[in-house]
Amino acid sequence: MAPSRPLLSAALALLLLPQPMLRAQETAFLSLPDAPEVHLAASDLQSSSSTSQPAPQAETHKQQHATEEQMEEQLHQRMAVVIPNFNAVLDGHPIPLTRRQKMRAAFRSAIDPYQFGLAFVTSSYGQALDSHDTIDANGVRHGYGQGWEGFGKRYGANYTDQFTGAIIGNGILPALLHQDARYYRMGERASFAKRFFYAISTAVICHSDSGRLQPNYSNVLGNLASGGISNLYYPEAERGFGLTVEQGMIVTAEGSIGSLLVEFYPDVRRHFSKKKGIATP
Questions:
Q1: Residue 257 and residue 277: Cα distance in Å, rounded?
Q2: What phi and psi, each to the nearest 5 degrees, are found at residue 248?
Q3: What distance in Å separates the CA atoms of residue 169 and residue 206, rounded to the nearest whole number?
Q4: Beta-carbon neighbour count of residue 153 at 10 Å?
Q5: Within 10 A of 100 (CB to CB), how many other CB atoms are there?
Q6: Is 27 helix (H, G, I), strand (E, B) or coil?
Q7: Helix 241-276 crosses helix 217-230 at what angle (to 10 degrees)?
Q8: DSSP string computed for 170-216
Q9: What are 84-128's pLDDT values in tens digits?
Q10: What does the pLDDT look like over 107-116, one tens digit per residue?
Q11: How far is it, in rounded angstroms, from Cα 75 to Cα 27?
């Protein structure tokens, strides 16, 4: 996955919003804060002595209906009207998703119109900076070049980076590894310091489907896998194992920016709505 994808996505969102000065009122502790509580499915709460007993059909149907309602609600979440926020739990009471639902959410995010617009912006920026292009000692240009052909290559590369990152890191790997790729917003119930350190920690720590905290293998391995796929279409000078690992680690670290945005965007929105006298939920 190219390192520009999550960083530019978060930067674009930040440009769309006025940013207030968020000041912490206490010293930030280095220890990881408690994560939001996960509400498990009824089948996950059964004791080991009763695991052999099938759940009542009515209870199973009720659980399926609840997860579908939750999914539909999350697939309508956006920041600043246009930026999709499908992969976040804002109320702190999530229900574990099925494998199919994880893939559905990942695919819906990958094909959202915002992603196509973001690829256009990042490609235009790359065209202006002549990214993915080098000139050797003999003055010969290598890479994507300029003109519409060069722009098309940059657009295709940027969108493919975004697509593979979303599908692998938010869909395939969470489904296979039984991890929950969603961001659980901590909200105003905690101090600024705890929320800040919790948000940046989610790049490498996540919940399992059973609610336990564990290393975020899905995010890290997803970034590495997406970077590996980019070797198929990036210029030769930008390929190789070392560059793939380096870019994957950079993208993982930059993912913290998006988490901070999800965590504090409601506060920012509420702050400016109050200044304008607009009631917010």
A1: 29
A2: -60, -40
A3: 12
A4: 20
A5: 10
A6: coil
A7: 120
A8: IIIHHHHHTEE-SEE--GGGS-HHHHHHHHHHTTTEEEETTS-EEE-
A9: 888 888 876 778 888 999 999 999 999 999 999 999 999 999 999
A10: 999 999 999 9
A11: 36
